[in-house]
Amino acid sequence: MSLVAGQLSQAETAFTKADAESYASMVRPTSDPQFGDYQANCAMPLAKRFGKPPREVAAALVTALDVDEFCHPPEVAGPGFINLRLRDPFIAESALRMLGDQRLGVGPASPVLRILIDFSSPNVAKPMHVGHIRSTVIGDALARTFRFMGHEVITDNHLGDWGTQFGMVIYGFKHFGDEESLQTDPVTELSRLYRLVNRVIGYHNAVAELPAARQAAAEASAATESARQAVASGEPAAAKKNQKALTAAVRKESATTARVAEIEASLAVARADTEFIALASAHREIATSVLTETAKLHRGDSENLALWQRFLPHCRDEIDRVYRRLDVDFDHTLGESFYHDMLAGVVTRLRQAGLASDSEGAVCVFLDGFDAPMIVQKKDGAYLYATTDLATLFYRQQRFSPDEILYVVDTRQGEHFEKLFAVADRLGLSDLRLRHVNFGTVLGADGRPFKTRSGASVGLESLLDEAVARASAVVCDPERSAKLTPPLDADELRSIADAVGHGAIKYADLAHHRSSDYRFDLEKMVSLEGNTSAYVQYAYARVNGIMSKGGVDIERIADDAKPPVLDAPAERNLALTLLRFGECLEQVRADYAPNFLVDYLYDTAKAYAIFNDSCPVLKAGDETLTKSRLVLVALTARVLRQGLELLGIKVIPRM
RNA sequence: GCGCCCAUAGCUCAGCUGGAUAGAGCAGCGGACUUCUAAUUCGCAGGUCGUAGGUUCGAAUCCUACUGGGCGUACCA
Questions:
Q1: In principle, which of A209, A236, A336, A516 could form an S-S bond with A162, CB 3.0–4.6 Å?
Q2: What is the mean pLDDT of residues A108-118?
């Protein structure tokens, strides 16, 4: 495609005398095979620009276009589309060249950019949960993809290792801690303390919130009643308006009463546990005490600092275990604590730049276009995550001098990043491209954010365990595995379930455009049917089966192979699809959206399935044809394996 | 109140700086196995792209208003 665009660009220049922006990149796969392989849509905008009929422009472009080497003569169709059909020998030779290239014809990128990706970034004081999937999986896929394209990628896990969560654990240990448990099983003990403190705080919050919630519900109920009367007795002229007000009132009433019910339910659960209530009653001031412990830690209090230093390695072990499972790693893990000493300097710098000022006791940066300021220091003197983010930005700029920094963070933090970037801009960092790579929420089957029935967030590890268990049930059918030669043994079955289970979760996440919310449905994710990880992994296993049976050495096959024959439609379509690998990576790059790669791999797996159905390889009955088709099979194997690897998903040789 | 995002087939979702007859999967119906892995594949059916205007040769895509939903909004991250 870039080849076409390049030639088109020359033709366009001949036509426009370089007197217009280029539309040569408007080449894309055709919407329908009857129009050829690619269509160029640049004639229409050019026609508008020069006030000439589009078909005339298209004809002029075609005349100037020098693509005879790899294309059949282009045709002008419809309002001015230029349809291009690649010559089979060109496709075949390109496929062979791709097979012989370690990089599958991709890159190296030009220009090579230094891209820093900030992703995952969990709070380490509490167990990872479902909310960490997206940042981790998307960030990892982008890092792998951009690196493969030839960019210089730096990954940095900006851990939450210094915040209120540690204040909670410190408070928990001081009051409820068990020294022996901490020594024998630190991770469980720390997790227990976090959960307990969190629960106590939640309980007191609920108690405190209940009266106000009840009142809000009562008011909403009264408002609904009066809205109802207005509808019943109001003037006809205002009927529509009144009805609308009633609808709104009813909605508010239902929301507020639901909130009351939610609080009451949680209190009922808590009160059933008398031991817990006794404990909670003894710690009424826990919320402020936790903040005090956090503040003491930040001030360098020796006891709290010692506890923090004691806890942190265990918290790190805990998340590292999950990263190992997910096969995710980082070049750097510079948590919030790393920047602590720089925070005062950030505030000073902002003051000196005339950006920060005092307001209501806090140090704030007021920015045009925002109602609320960015607060960089609280009235009690503590710093906030905005301060840390700025310190981090300055540090990264100074140490790594990246061209681009990507923040793979929940879309709800959009406003925070707008402010952060605005401040960076005001401080003269405008040549550094900052980008909030936002993503939507993971929803449960009910369309609400994915939670357990009791309202807690779902633990990441238990989710992975469940995915592996379900994958095992779907993929490890004993009758089937016995049919393979040799039969799959227990170890191999386990590694299959592992690859499919973890792959399913990653694949499903990456299959949706990152900015949309999606429904988490494990059953669908591990299914062998449809656009799933298992389907693509299975396609690879089939490909691999043929290669091993045919004795193909995938590393050597390109050395003495000939360009494949593409007489069958399935052969040609498969080859053409394989050639588009690089194009889809460009799409991923342009929009920071791995779902383009997922779609591509699914298309490729489908194209292969059709080929597999209609084109025998080892049984083609003709040695030349067998060799030709083995080239396509081997290239399919490499593309699927490489593509899945860029998504962080493993392939298995058999399944 | 203000701001951001979303609304596409029964369901879950794609749809690439505006392009030809809006796609896929699942679910439904009907075909194809002396298979190199049928865990596959082929066909059928299914859509006023939330509503109403506007811009354009051309709008799911851009603009405006409206409807419905989600999220954010001064010292959590």
A1: A336
A2: 93
Residue ranges of alpha helices (H) inside A53-109 are 54-64, 88-99
Nucleotide nearest to A570 (CA to C1'): B41
Phi, psi values for residue A344, rounded to 5°: -60, -40
Q: What is the CATH number of domain A2-86?
A: 3.30.1360.70
Give the residue among A550, A528, A552 at the shortest CA–CA distance from A605.
A528
Which nucleotide in the DNA or RNA is closest to residue A375, CA to C1'?
Answer: B75
A127 Cβ neighbours under 8 A, 6+ residues apart:
A191, A194, A318, A459, A460, A461
> pTM for the full model?
0.94
Q: What is the pLDDT of residue A587?
A: 92
Whole-number Å distance between alpha carbons of A83 and A40: 6
CATH topology for A460-646 is Isoleucyl-tRNA Synthetase; Domain 1 (1.10.730)
Q: ipTM of the predicted structure?
A: 0.95
Q: Which residue is nearest to nucleotide B24 (CA to C1')?
A: A531
Q: Residues in chain A, how many?
A: 655
As a whole number of angstroms, the distance between CA A185 and CA A197 comes to 19
Distance A9 CA to B9 C1' (A): 40
Check whether A49 has a pLDDT greater than 60: yes
| pLDDT higher than 70, residue A249 | yes
